[in-house]
Amino acid sequence: MSKDDRIAVILRTARELIREKGFENFLPLEVAQKSGISEGMVYKYFKSKRELMERVAEDWFEEFLNEAPLPAQDLPLRDQLFQVIWSSLMSIKREPALTRFVLMELRADPNYRNLPTYRQSRRFAKSVVDVIEQGIQRGLIREDLNRKLVRDMIFGAIEHATWAFLRGEDEEFSVDVTARGITDMILDGISTQKPLTTEMIERLEHMVSQLASELHGVRMGPPAD
Amino acid sequence: MSKDDRIAVILRTARELIREKGFENFLPLEVAQKSGISEGMVYKYFKSKRELMERVAEDWFEEFLNEAPLPAQDLPLRDQLFQVIWSSLMSIKREPALTRFVLMELRADPNYRNLPTYRQSRRFAKSVVDVIEQGIQRGLIREDLNRKLVRDMIFGAIEHATWAFLRGEDEEFSVDVTARGITDMILDGISTQKPLTTEMIERLEHMVSQLASELHGVRMGPPAD
Amino acid sequence: MSKDDRIAVILRTARELIREKGFENFLPLEVAQKSGISEGMVYKYFKSKRELMERVAEDWFEEFLNEAPLPAQDLPLRDQLFQVIWSSLMSIKREPALTRFVLMELRADPNYRNLPTYRQSRRFAKSVVDVIEQGIQRGLIREDLNRKLVRDMIFGAIEHATWAFLRGEDEEFSVDVTARGITDMILDGISTQKPLTTEMIERLEHMVSQLASELHGVRMGPPAD
Amino acid sequence: MSKDDRIAVILRTARELIREKGFENFLPLEVAQKSGISEGMVYKYFKSKRELMERVAEDWFEEFLNEAPLPAQDLPLRDQLFQVIWSSLMSIKREPALTRFVLMELRADPNYRNLPTYRQSRRFAKSVVDVIEQGIQRGLIREDLNRKLVRDMIFGAIEHATWAFLRGEDEEFSVDVTARGITDMILDGISTQKPLTTEMIERLEHMVSQLASELHGVRMGPPAD
DNA sequence: TATGAATGAGCATTCATTCAT
DNA sequence: AATGAATGAATGCTCATTCAT
Predict the structure, then answer these.
(1) CA of B47 to C1' of F13 (A)
(2) What positions does the DNA-binding region cover (chains A, B, C, D) (predicted)?
């Protein structure tokens, strides 16, 4: 078996083990046994247990990035955002144990910013930010937003929904419903109609009133409810 | 030293150690030494290392809940929400290591729902949900919202912002700015103005058209559909 | 509460705890708590945990010796032996945990021969040996027996039956049946009745019959019962 | 050193340590040191201290069972029984500490019946029971015996004799004498010749005397020895 | 006399990593 | 290249006993 095949087998086995037992119980010895090789070989190809785990996470993330291509720019904004959030939730639902590893272990690593996973995470985050920027350029999204915060909110919502799923709180966890909810809330907020609109209307009403008074010498009030 | 004082000392020391070294490196022996007592004493008052850590988290959460009283119901909705988010971020900024412990260890515990921390977390979540409900009743927030999702989004945003801070990504992390940003985004969403307003504007346009036609004998208006 | 009362309470509590949890899990702290006194008091009256446990065993043994008086010497031998064995099994059945303590811990102690329990054990063993001796004197038991071995066999049988009971193997463990079985086997052995004896008698009977017939012309049968 | 050799060394060392210090003071660390290996190696081949000790007991028992082959069926019953009892006592005399471990620790284990030692113990017990059954079939042993009780008595006698030896009470402990004594007592019981027989003979003597006196006018006494 | 806080030695077990073969 | 035996530091937890108050 070639070196690359060997590595592929180890990575696949390791991913299975993480999926089955959780990353806290992941043992290099088991990877070797399940791969039909010796422990020494695992350490030949991966400097340490940690490196192996990081590579597993990296591969998984890479797959995700490839499977979830950038949303087509000619789609409506809402659809683009939905697609990005939906892919993310879907991927998490498929590999909850790996998700936990990335969220809990890698992200807490002081060295996180030098890890490939960090860059991957940035790539994905960028695809979200790109959608936002596009929305801004099209005039559909407010310009005055803190981009970082928008990104945090989107991912925050995704992750928080994920935790509930990982803890088994939401047995009926539906990727579609959750993704739709997050998308709408991000775009529309939770308020009912906007006060600014009213103000503008009031201003218009004022103008109309003035016109009317010029015409008839009579001051019109706002339309009765 | 009285039993209660002893317990207090242990808890304080333990909290310091978690703060300094992170919960992964927390050793009961060190707690004892730093408290000037024997390891056995720690185990006299706390059945296990885990229980001690949970108590530290619990006390911290309790302090937070006491320090962050329910927002006054007569405040504007936006201020109430801001206050809740601000307290949360503030508390996290003060004890990042404990936050990590709660978010990563406790929340991932299969038994999480039976822990005091879970109930505390619910209490806090409830205070947020209460604000939302009140907004709905006042007609300021849409009725058709998935409450759980709103809650997830708010906490998700808070936590995600927290992670960036914990990782030292945002050195200039400002509780005020972040809380303000989250609050506004939750309430208003990120979109520009709302199409529904159009109806009202159409009515106005109609009024203006009539006025204008009276003035000039010409019908202005939007193009007929 | 007087000193003696105190001691009595401690001993009673200790016995209950040994009964409930087994002697391996016996904790002085629990004795104190259950007795409503402090741990220090336990150590005031008993030099060590071991001494306390030995005293519990001693008291129990003493009770047994008092409750199981010497078998009346005018009873048939078999009844005396049965009584002794029966009392022993009965006492064991009542306090299995204490029995285990004596059999496993005390008896294995290098210092066992200096313990009160040893002397008590000897007292009880003597009562058995006395029955045997009496049997010998009455001509009912062979003289050439190794007394020590007889004693070992009797107690061995009792203890082995006990172990099965302690392990829960014989749920239907009946003191009566077991005591009866042991008694009979000890007295009679397991061999069938000696064929030679009967044969000889028959031969003699045959000879006598012939003599009689020669004398009287009449055939005598065996004597009517 | 091969895996099997290593295991053998560990088992041998462990057995020595148990022999020297008793099973209560048995430390895995010491096994490793005395075997010239690290503690980790002990745990590589044996999941736990307990498992190691059980394996030591198991091997010892297996050796015993191999060294003490089934008694030849054509031997007299008494010789077969003697042989079985003798082997048992001999093995115990060689490894008193292991005997204590089996009798006290293993046999008290709630899981005892699932241990290999239990099955070994059954195998040996069966060889005894087989001898008994054979005796019954040959008409040499009473049919109406409670087999379980016979077995208990034999082993009880063996074990009780063992205990005395283990405690050093019988310094002159002789396997031959003890085995002989137990065998005889089991087979013959402790009673003198059966009184009924004597009685019958006396009656016969009486009849014979009468006949004789009728014949010769002379009173006959009991037959001279 | 009574308390109960305090001690601290003692021990089983794990597992990432190395390296002789 | 490949093996897998070997390492050994690290650590949570127990509990009989003491002694200051």
Answers:
(1) 9
(2) 27-46
What are the pLDDT digits (tens) for A13-35? 999 999 999 998 999 999 999 99
Please report the pLDDT score of residue B167 as a whole number: 75
Distance of CA C133 to the CA centre of its chain: 16
Short-list D79, D26, D80, CA closest to D52: D26
| B77 and B171 fall within a common domain | yes
Question: Closest protein residue to E12 using CA and C1' atoms?
Answer: D49
Residues in CB range of B189: below 8 A, 6 or more apart: A185, A186, A187, A188, A189, A190, A191
* Stretch among B20-29, C168-177, D200-209 having the lowest mean pLDDT: D200-209
pLDDT of residue C195: 43
- Is residue D15 within 8 A of residue D56, CB to CB? The reply is yes
The label of the residue with tokens 């020391």 reads B13
Rounded CA–C1' distance between A145 and F16, in angstroms:
67
Q: Which residue of B has its CA nearest to A215?
A: B215
Domain membership flag for residue B51: no
- The enclosing domain of A15 has a CATH number of 1.10.10.60
Dihedral, CA of residue C73, residue C78, residue C84 and residue C87, to nearest 10 = -120
Chains contacting chain C through 3 or more C-beta pairs under 8 A: D
The pLDDT of residue B205 is 65
And the tokens for B12? 């304080």
pLDDT of residue C36: 94
Which of the nucleotides in strand E have any atom less than 7 Å away from a protein CB atom? Answer: 1-20
- Determine the structural domain holding residue C42 and report its residue range: 1-46
A61 shares its domain with A166? yes
Calculate mean pLDDT across residues C128-148. Answer: 86
| Most D CBs within 10 Å, among C113, C149, C193, C206, to test the D interface | C149
- Domain of residue D159, CATH code: 1.10.357.10
Q: Based on the domain organization, do A30 and A96 belong to the same domain?
A: no
- Strands in A20-133 per DSSP E: none
Query: Are residues A24 and A111 located together in one domain of the fold?
Result: no
Residue D217's pLDDT band (cuts 50, 70, 90): low
| C85 CA: distance to closest CA in chain D (Å) | 13
- How many whole angstroms from its chain centre is CA C160? 11
Split into its structural domains, chain A has a count of 3
Q: Are residues D128 and D98 in the same domain?
A: yes
Give distance CA A40 / C1' E20 (Å): 13
Q: What is the pLDDT of residue D61?
A: 94
Residue D138: per-residue pLDDT: 83
- pLDDT of amino acid D135: 87
Residue B65 shares a structural domain with residue B171: yes
Mean pLDDT to the nearest integer, B58-87 = 90
Same domain, C223 and C158: no
**Assigned domain for B52 exists:** no
Helical H runs in chain C? 3-21, 28-35, 39-45, 49-67, 77-94, 96-100, 116-137, 147-166, 175-188, 195-216
Which of D80, D63, D79 shows the shortest CA–CA distance to D71? Answer: D80
Footprint of strand E on the protein (CB under 7 A): A 25-29, 39-40, 43, 48-50; B 1, 3, 6, 36-41, 43-44; C 1, 3, 6, 37-41, 43-44; D 26-29, 39-40, 43-44, 47-50
A184 sits in which H/E element: helix A175-188
Q: Do chains C and A touch (3 or more CB pairs under 8 A)?
A: no
d(CA C191, CA D183): 12
Q: Indicate the residue of D135, D156, D187 with minimum beta-carbon distance to C157.
A: D156
Report long-range pairs for D12-15 (Cβ below 8 Å, ≥24 apart): D14/D52, D14/D53, D14/D56, D15/D56, D15/D59, D15/D60, D15/D95, D15/D98
D64 within a domain of the structure (yes/no):
yes
**CA dist., res. A132 & res. A107, Å (int):** 24
Q: Could you give the CA distance from residue D124 to residue D70 in angstroms, rounded to a whole number?
A: 9
